[in-house]
Amino acid sequence: MAKRFEKCQIDVLELAFEESEHLSREKKIDLVRTTGLDMEQIASWFNRKRACKRARESIGDLERTNAELQQALEESREKEAKLQKKLNESKQREAELEAENQSLKHSLMISGGDLQFDSVLGFVNRYR
């Protein structure tokens, strides 16, 4: 089973990682002398540290992307609600105009009789 690193060893490795995420052979040899760890342990620690850093960065990227997508979704929902309101208003206006049209047709039939209405329809149909 792998032995846990001591705090002083981790502190030295952390400092070295802050200086450079990738080690030269000379720096590895220096860390071997300073920490008492072997090269494989140091190389493995640096690999794990880089992997953890990439994972944190990926999580941050995903969280930013998620926030952007949530914002876009909210904007789309607001736009959809506005369009739905416009559609309902247009349908209501169409129904009102249709009712007015029916009323006018009815008035024409009552006031002028069928012949007069037919002549109006003929006039309208000529200019369509």
UniProtKB/TrEMBL annotation:
Protein name: Homeobox domain-containing protein
Coiled coil: none
Cited InterPro entries: HD (IPR001356), Homeodomain-like_sf (IPR009057)
DNA-binding residue intervals: 3-57
Claim: DNA-binding is one of the keywords in the record: yes
Keywords, sorted A to Z: DNA-binding, Homeobox, Nucleus
Short name of any one Pfam family annotated for the protein: Homeodomain
Gene Ontology CC terms: nucleus
UniProt keyword annotation of Nucleus present: yes
Ranges where the record places region Disordered: 73-98
Bias (Basic and acidic residues): 74-96
Provenance organism: Forsythia ovata
GO molecular function, one term: DNA binding
Domain Homeobox: 1-56
Cellular location(s): Nucleus
